[in-house]
Amino acid sequence: LPSILDTQNKTVHRAIMSSPESSFYECPICLATFQAPVMLACQHSFCWKCLKKYMESDGRMCPVCRERINGNSDITRNLLLEQLLSEKNKDSTSSVPPDRPNNFVRQTNESTKTDTIT
């Protein structure tokens, strides 16, 4: 059973990571990238601050599916989403090349007096 779950998690992870602009990373309340993501019993995720503010304004149902929220016991950290966000951030920063001189070479053709960048 664990190997099946691992395979499914890897498949889901690849699908999510292949679409980095996906709304999967967006809180449905603030529409920004999740900050300290939490999950309700209904499996919908939100930023902790967004959900807290929503609940303080008498929000007692999930903003997405309207399932009743039974207090803080229905709220857990979304560890999987935290990890995916962390990996997404690592991927986006590692794709930026370090500051260094460019790799282009300027060549001058002496017969035509033209420059070529390769």
Automatic annotation (TrEMBL):
Keywords: Metal-binding, Zinc, Zinc-finger. Residues 27-66 form the RING-type domain. Residues 88-118 are annotated as: Disordered. Residues 104-118 have a biased composition (Polar residues). It holds the Pfam family zf-C3HC4. InterPro entries: Znf_C3HC4_RING-type, Znf_RING, Znf_RING/FYVE/PHD, Znf_RING_CS. Coiled coil: none annotated. GO terms for molecular function: zinc ion binding. The keyword Metal-binding applies. This is Tripartite motif-containing protein 65. It comes from Schistocephalus solidus.
